[in-house]
Amino acid sequence: MLNKLGRPQILKQVKKIILSFLKYYLFWILFLTVFKVFFTIYNYSFVANIPSSDFWGIFRYGVIMDLSVAGYLSMLPGVIFSLGFIISSRFSSYLLKFYTLALLIAMTFLGLTDAGLYPAWGTRLNSQFLMYLETPGGIYASLTWWQLILFPALWVGIVWLSFKSYNQLLKRKDLSNMKMKWWGIPVTLFLIAFLIIPIRGGLDRAPMNHSSVYFSSYLEANQFAYNYFWNFIHDVLKHKKARVNVSYMPDEDAKSILETHDKTNSEAPQIIFPVKNKPTNVILVFLESFSNKVIEPLGGLPSITPRLNEFCKEGIAFNSFFATGRRSDKGMLATIGGRPSDMSRTTALAFPDKMSKLDYFPKYFANRGYNMSFYYGGDVNFYNTRAVMIQSGINKIISKSDFPLDVGLKQKWGVPDEHLYARAFEDLKKEKEPFFSIVYNISSHEPFDIEGYDKFPPTSTKNKYLNVISYADSCLGVFIDSLKQTDMWDHTLIMITSDHTSLEPDHTNITEPSSYRIPLVLIGGVVKDSFISDRIGNQNDLAPTILNQLEWQYKKDLLSKDFLTDDSYAFYFSSQGWGFISPKVGWFMNTNTKKQDFFYNHTPTKTDSLMHFAKAYVQYLHGGHP
Hints:
By secondary structure, this protein is of the alpha/beta class. Helix content is 47%, strand content 12%. It has an 8-stranded mixed sheet.
């Protein structure tokens, strides 16, 4: 049989099969390399100051992950090649063509999204993006007008050029005319099997992981080396369940360690002095994307937030108060729901059954007959915000839809702060006392698009951010000044904090403490002292601290504390790992690479007990305890 076909002819056909397969694999390598170059150029400012050896290492080490992804993308085409030996080469060539086009559309969309989100997220595309797809209005609101034009244009252009290149590299005519015989099947199966080597990243025991391309002491260089598609799919699969499994010790040991920790005999110093026979009104001002990096008395840049600077000196400010995560839902979960965020993509706020089990901070006031209200300039359905507030005992919810249409359209996200604060003040000065109110601004949200306020020229993203921060600060100042003119001021507590930080200005990366350090400022007639405290705490520590000041009973929680009396520490979490901050030591534990970076005071003999406690805390948190 072989002799009839002719050995040279068989070898020629085998060579064509192998060459076509390798061309297809090469096509995806080139595509992914071009996208890596595009990503690097688009976000060049993040790696502009790293050593040149690390810069070129992005491509040298990152190609390993690109080869892996190209292998995954080429496996199904190997099967399609085999179909040509069973059915017809014409059919398989058409099937391959449409498979490639569909992949190009999806891969280009994800690649562009990855490049666009990196400046805000500080991490490569991950499973959290799926939450945004559930609420596309949030994606639209986060984009500037030029991005809205550029994105679809690039999407179409890149897909068109890539598909044209594919058709030039693997001409359908050549594939259709390939004379397929049964002996081509074992050849293609061998080629598919061979792809396991690049997919796994080599012949070592360990399969491809983040450590495979982790080469630099600069986080950004390592992140740039990642392949966006590999990182996204890995994160989706890793977080397909709401829980992230963490295991450092037996569960009962973790709980026991927490139960024996934070035992102090001291009482909290009194910092809030309620007026006798007058219940204390409480206003929680929740600032969008504020960090200590822009507040001078808390270690930030000068002259950006003059009003907040005043309030820090007027009342009590904390310079080491930390957000537990970097998105709004995580900030709401910790501050309002009383539970720290974790390394999961989702939070309890996405699950009604879990949401109902939270110990809500506002609920303590609602149960004492306070009038409850919430003011927000955006869409109250985003991140399940309406459900959160209702669960919290808040029955008056004012959002974007409650303002005139032209006011709600002034910014992408909704109502500018000046209108939001004006509405909140007009309502609160007529509100029956006592009341608890949350005012949550949106003007400092990306894409930093406030109009008519030009303290900083919009020449860079940094300046745009500083401009909206300055605007938000000025509007907050007017709100506080108005409250001071009312009779309620002497028995009112105002807590000013933030949902999370921004990586702007002067980008910090998502492992650094400064990317989670947020303001906490207490002012009002019931705050008599003025000082800046070094006590370290988390958003979920706010409720027990304030409730203790009011001498109210509250539910004890192993994950939260009165940070004025208990041990001074804080945690923060991202999809890449967790950070721990205390007066003695600070570190970030990268759970992807198993690498631990110490920020200061790395003395193992002195940190063993803290390390044990921190691991117990993280394990207990991720164990799904209510």
